[in-house]
Amino acid sequence: MKHLIAIALVSAAFSAPALAAEGSSCHFHGNKPVAEATVVECAVQRKAQLVNSGKLEASWQAVKHDKIETVDGKKGKEWRLTFKNPAEKDKTKETLFMFYAPSGNFIAANFTGQ
Q1: Where does the signal sequence lie (predicted)?
Q2: What is the CA radius of gyration of the chain?
Q3: Which of 28, 30, 36, 111 keeps 20 to 30 A from 103, CA to CA?
């Protein structure tokens, strides 16, 4: 019986898809680059999480991304998304930068762009 359970677990692990599909969770496996639209959607979701957790003020909720570009990061190319919030009281925090791996996984968010 133990062997049947072990075989079933191994089969399930290797039969699952290796990559997350667009429209699913924003956690991806493998190194296949994702579409720009997928990265934007993941950034919007992450921004909402930051607002809900209180790390960003509520005024950020409605802010749409301003720009998306690829930049050279510490480990190679990265997506950098820029969100600008003119309603932000602290002008040093008026621009939010979010970084994603080419595969779509979140790397970091900050107000410096670095």
Answers
A1: 1-20
A2: 18
A3: 111
Residue-wise pLDDT for 4-22, tens only, equals 343 433 333 333 333 333 4
Q: What is the pLDDT of residues 60-112, one digit of tens each?
A: 999 999 999 999 988 899 999 999 999 999 999 999 999 999 999 999 999 99
Cα(42)–Cα(71) distance, rounded to whole angstroms?
18
Domain ranges of the chain: 2-110
Give the rounded percent of residues in the chain with a pLDDT score beyond 90. Answer: 67
Q: Note whether 78 and 107 are within 8 A (CB).
A: yes
